[in-house]
Each structure stands twice: as C-alpha cells, then as structure tokens.
Amino acid sequence: MSTYIIRRLFHSVIIILIVSLIVFLLLRALPGDPIMMLIAQNTNMEWTPEMIEALRDSKGLNDSLPVQYFRWFSMMLRGDFGVSIMHNYNIGEQLKSKVVVSMMLGICSFAVSIIVGPLLGIISAIRRGKFIDNVVTIFANIGITAPQFWIAILLIFLFSMRLQLLPIYGYTLPWVNLGLCIRQSILPVFVTALGPIASTARQTRSSVLEVLGEDYVRTAWAKGMNERKVLMKHVLKNSLMPIVTLQGTMLRQIVGGSVVVERVFVIPGMGKFMVDAMQGRDYTVVQSVTVVMTLVVVISYLIVDLLYGWVDPRIQYD
Amino acid sequence: MDRLLTVTGLSTEFRTERGIVKAVNNISYTVNESEIVGLVGESGCGKSVSQLSVMQLIPNPPGRIVAGSVDFDGTDLLQYKRESNEMCAIRGRYISMIFQEPMTSLNPALTICRQMTEVMIEHLGTEYKEAREKSIDMLDQVGIPDAAKRIDDYPHQFSGGMRQRVMVAMAMLCNPKMIIADEATTALDATIQAQLLELLYGMVDKYKTALVMVTHNLGVVARYVNRINVMYAGSIVESGTVNEIWANPMHPYTEGLLSCVPRLGEKLVPIKGMPPSLVNRPDTCPFAARCRYRQKQCFEQPVSELTLVEGTHYSACAVKLEGKV
Ligand SMILES: Nc1ncnc2c1ncn2[C@@H]1O[C@H](COP(=O)(O)OP(=O)(O)O)[C@@H](O)[C@H]1O
Ligand SMILES: [Mg+2]
C-alpha cells in the first residue's frame, strides 16, 4: 500500500515534469511574445531596439531555452513562482488567493456532482421507462451536449437579468460574506457541475441496471431481503464502483470548465487568471498556473484511486 | 410424513420479442417434510424457472406466473406479491435457495460475515455478535477451515467449492424447512462436486430439512433422493421413487437420461437432438421428434397427462403406457 503511494507520487512528479516542459515549449512556439505585448501597452514611450533588447535581457528571455527552463523550475521547487513579465507582480502571492477561489468553486461543484449525479442515475434506473426516467435522460443529454458558456449566458439572462434573483457576476469568499458567497456561487457551480452530473447520472443508471441483473442480487432477494435492503446493501455499492473511477475524469472536466465559467461570471480564480495571462503571453504566469492545476488534478487522481480500492475490495495495490 | 409443499398446475411464461416462452407448463408436484426430491432434466427444460416461481423470484417483466398455486405449509405463496413483506419473510427463513453459479452468487463487495449475519438479523432479529458467532459455527459445520478468520474475507478470496459451502451455510442459518439447490454442484470439478453433495445431504439430514435437488444429471440424485420428478420442455413427464424409475423408466426421455449416467463397463449414450424451442409450443408431445418409440399419434394427439403406472409412479407417455412397445 505505502509502496503503491510512493510509486504513484513518483509518477506524479514525472507527469508534472512533462507537463511543465510541454507548456514551456508550446508557449514559446506560439506567435507573439510578452515583450512585444508589453511594448504595445506602453505606447507613450519611444522604444529603441536597444531598449527592447535590454528589457528582454532583464526578463531573462535572451538566455537559451534549457537555461530558462531550469531556472524557472528550480525556482518553483523552492516555492518561488517568479514575477509576472507583464505586470511585475509576484506570481506566488497572486496565485494563493486565486487557488483558494477556484478550489472553493471546484470543491462545491465536485460535491454537487458526486451527490446529484448518482442520485439521479439511481432514481432513473429504479423507475426505468417511467416519467422521471425520461426527464433525467433529457436533462442528461442537455448537460452533456450543451456548451457551458451558452448555458451560463442563458442562466445569467434568466435568473440575474430577467428575474433579478441572483448576482450577475463576481465572487466573494464565504468568510467575508457567506450569504453573498452562496448567491454568487449558485450559477457558476451549477454550470460547472452540469456536465459531470449528466455523465455520472447516465453512467450510474446503466451501472445500476446492470447490477440489478446480477446473480448476487437474486441471492439477496432469495435471502429474504426487502427491496430497500437489496438496493441499499447489495446494489448501491456495486453499482457505484465504476462511478468512482469516473470521478477522475469529472475532476478534469471541472478544472477545465473553470476556465470558461470563471471568465463568464468574472470570478477571480485560476481559470480567469490563466486566460488573462495567456492573452498577454505572460509566459511565467501561464507556466506556473498550469503546473499548479496539474498538481491539483494529479493529487485528486491519487485520492480517487485510493478511494476506488476502498470501495472495491478486489483491487489490490502492489 | 407431513406435506410441506404442494405445487399445483404451475405455469410461468416469458414475453419475449420472439413470442411467448412457456418455460413452465402446468406442473404439479409435492415435497414432504425432510424429504429429498430430485428434479431432473436437460438444461433449458424450465427447472430453474419452476423453482424461481415457487420462490417468486421470476424477473417481471418479462416473466409472469400465469396459473397455479404453491401451497407451502398451508399458505398459498402466489397470493403474495413478489416484493411483499410476506414473501420476504418466507424467503431465506423457511425456504432457502442455493444457486448454480458459485463465482457470481455472492456479493463481491461485502465480506462473508456481512452477507451471512444479515440473514439472521433480518429474520430472527439476532444481535450482530450472536449472528456472527452462529455464522462462524455454521461455516465450521460446512467444513470451512479456520472459519473464525475466514468469515471476514471477501468472496473472491474463496475457491468455487468453498463458496458453494458458504452458500450452503448461509442457506442453513435460519434452519429453514426446505432448501432448493438449483444445480448447486454442476459448475464444480467431479471430486469437489461429490464432497459438496455429501455435505449437502449430511446437513439436511442433520437438521431434518426438506431438499429439492435440481440437476441435469440423474447420477447426482440417485443415491440420496426419495423421489424424482423428470422435467422436459416445461412439463413433468415422469415422477416416482428412485427404485420405480430406475428399474422401470416409463418415459422414453427418462430412459434417455438414464443412459446418460456413466456406469462401469457401459457405453454412454447421449440423447440425440436438442430440446424443442419453448416459443409458441404446440400441445403435442414435445419429445416426439427425438423419441425412439414415437408413433403417428404422438404428432397428432395432445400429449397425455401424467398417468398412474403403479404405486407412486406416474408417466406422461401414452405409447409406453398402452404397452405398445
Ligand atoms: N429471463 C428470461 N427471459 C426469457 N426467457 C427465459 C428467461 N429465463 C428463462 N427463460 C427461458 O425459460 C426456459 C427454461 O429455462 P430454465 O428454467 O433456466 O432451464 P433449466 O432447466 O436449465 O434450469 C428456457 O428456454 C429459457 O430460454
Ligand atoms: Mg437452470
């Protein structure tokens, strides 16, 4: 077990290395560079080629790629994410508050989707072919196919502008103003969780239906268990096994979706941070945010895998 | 001996896309207290469906019990709904069932302990600790070594034979009046199969439990059972004591089954052909197409009812009954 965790942590390190390398190289392969962006924003100054060169030098962008990469990575290992090329702020400091905001929304969305998704799936499996099953199926199909930004805009239009029930944008931390935080979270969390809820509901439905036909469910009936006990003790745990592995994918969806959702709802989280930095080709910021997001996903994956072993006793870690 | 179970005119159908499958067709049989009854027939003959009908475990849809009554200890079980509390109070308490598939019949996500104790807790209201002790004791009795430890294992940690032993132990927990063993030993190796049969017969003898032994192999039941019902294409075609049937099989199908039992120095003769499809079946003799003794009337007249031969011996073959062969 502990050797398994150590091996997985080792894998995680490799994944982070690879991701950091890829994002580092991809950014530099993109057209445009941060110095040009910086100059474009400061048009009140006369820029001579020498000045540009000196600026480039001071940001360390004239060093060879391996040197730049190792400088960035070794700094990060020491907990220093460096300074924004564009705006000179300390990235680590900025990240801290953004990570908190994104984690709050991410954890809420995750919690909502792992509770609501399986619940809908179970209900529609038990009431197969009935009205409620059809409603869930339609909802799931919308959730899977509809683009997030479109749903978000639609909901903002309906609940915030027309009905004026919820704030249009922004985010407040719960310990600052809990009521406002909840009201501001409802729409973003719903939009983020919609996809995961939909796919989990569908997966759970088919999984429950499959388990209902298993021999051991018939055994449970033959033992004289009533319907509630058959479902709760024998069907539920077994049908949730495949759902647990799915949660890894859910997490990725939620982290990825935050980029869109945070932008539409103007939430100061990592997603929006990343998009803003990307538009300025702010290499160091994009790199650091990517590595932090990867770290979060990798750790969550590890947790999900350990959870899976706890749910399914047949799995052995070695 | 007192009558325990009286099944009368039981018929079960499945509605499928191909048509109505008459899996069980108007069968009647009885089981006395602490009696061992064999139910024999090739696979697909409706043995499992008939037993599941008695337990009210037929999946519905597509299955449906369309006629008959199942009188168990004075109450008609078919008056109760499948999921009703009354039925749940009987299953596992007064009638237990052991299934064929040792690999899939136990819940892979729960320990043996959870799966066993829940039966006693449910039916007898036993405290968990006591239920656990009784379960360990029962595992001991069915020959699981180191039962006190193994009880906390999961099913996948047991071999097929051991799992069937666990199933036997689980079936015996509430000291039921009747056990239905549906091909309980079929999936096992020959030696393991023999051991399990010994165990099963030993257990029902010790606790005076009635046993319905479902199998496709006459050899499995011959040594122990009191009476045999031979089933073919959803109907019981011959019924009688082992001696009556062994000495004088009165249905060509039984004869065929007997020649399938391996005996020293004799050649195995399998029955030619396959059981007929049970979809939209005509009411002529279903065995006629494979029968050595068939005559023109077999394809024209409706199959005859179970008719008394002598003693407790019944057969449904008109040709042999009339002594034409
Ligand atoms: N769920 C089902 N749906 C449709 N047909 C079924 C179902 N279960 C059993 N049958 C049919 O009932 C017949 C009897 O099956 P069964 O009782 O399992 O035979 P066996 O004698 O081998 O136990 C078979 O022809 C089978 O096709
Ligand atoms: Mg069967």
Q: Can you describe this structure?
A:
The complex is a heterodimer of chains A (318) and B (325). In chain A, α5 packs across α8 (178-212), α7 (148-162) packs across α10 and α8 (178-212) packs across α10. In chain A, 77% of the residues lie in helices and 0% in strands. The termini of chain A are close together. Chain A has a domain at 95-311: MetI-like (MetI-like fold), CATH 1.10.3720. Chain A has 318 residues and is mainly α. Chain A is globular, with a radius of gyration of 24 Å. Chain B contains twelve helices and twelve strands. Chain B has an eight-stranded mixed sheet, with helices on both faces. Chain B has helices at 47-54, 85-90, 112-124, 128-141, 147-150, 160-172, 190-207, 218-222, 242-247, 252-259, 296-300, 318-321, and strands at residues 3-16, 19-32, 36-40, 63-72, 75-76, 95-98, 178-182, 210-215, 227-232, 235-241, 307-310, 313-315. The mean pLDDT of chain B is 89. With 325 residues, chain B is α/β, with parallel strands linked by helices. Chain B is globular and about 65 Å long. Chain B has one domain: Rossmann fold (3-Layer(aba) Sandwich), CATH 3.40.50. Helix content of chain B is 32%, strand content 25%. In chain B, α3 (112-124) crosses α4 (128-141), α4 crosses α6 and α6 (160-172) packs parallel to α7. At the A-B interface, α9 and α10 of A face α2 and α3 of B. Adenosine-5'-diphosphate binds next to β1, β2 and α1 of chain B. The site of magnesium ion has 4 residues of chain B, from α1.
Summarize the biggest pleated sheet of chain B: 8 strands, mixed
Instruction: Supply the CATH class of chain B.
Output: Alpha Beta
Query: What kind of sheet is the major sheet of chain A?
Result: none
Structural class of chain A: mainly alpha
Query: How many helical stretches of chain A?
Result: 12
Helix share, percent of chain B: 25-40%
Strand content of chain A: under 5%
State the total count of DSSP E strands of chain B. 12
User: Main sheet of chain B: which strands, in order across?
Assistant: 6-7-8-3-9-10-12-11
* SSE arrangement of chain B, N to C: EEEHEEHEHHHHEHEHEEHHHEEH
